[in-house]
Amino acid sequence: MTFSVLGTDGRGGVGVAVASSSPAVAARCVHLRAGIGGATSQNITDPRLGSALLDRLAAGASAEEALAAVTSAVPGIDYRQLTVLGLDGRSAAFSGNHTLGTHHQRTGVGVVVAGNMLADTVVVDVMVDAFGSGLETNPPLGSPTGGGGLELERRLLASLAAGLQAGGEAGPVHSAGLAVVRTAPWLETDLRVDWSDTPVADLSDLLDLWLPQRDAYVQRALDPATSPSYGVAGDDR
Question: Domains in the chain, please, with CATH?
Answer without folding.
Answer: 2-226 (3.60.20.10)
